[in-house]
Amino acid sequence: MERRKRRSPIDEYVDALMDSPEKLQRCTLFYQNLRSFYRKKWNCPLKAPHIQGVEVNLFRLYDTVVSFGGW
C-alpha cells in the first residue's frame, strides 16, 4: 500500500480555487451545522480527525458517501 503524501498549503489553496462557489458554500454550511451539533450534543468544539498525521476532510468524505447513495 502506497503511503499518502501530505499536501502543501499551496496545493490546498489551488484546489480551493478550482471548486465551484456552490460547493464552497455547501462546505461552509456543512461545517457550521457540524460545529453546532457538537456544541448542542456534547458542549465541546469540533476537532477534526487525523489519520497518520493527515487531517481528514469531513465534507469531502460526506460528499463522497452521499454521491454513492449513502446518507
Automatic annotation (TrEMBL):
Q: What Pfam family is a match for this entry?
A: ARID
Coiled coil (UniProt feature): none
Q: What is the originating organism of this protein? A: Gnathostoma spinigerum
What InterPro entries does the annotation carry?
ARID_dom, ARID_dom_sf
Protein's name in the database: ARID domain-containing protein
Show where the ARID domain sits.
24-71
Q: In which domain of life is the source organism classified?
A: Eukaryota
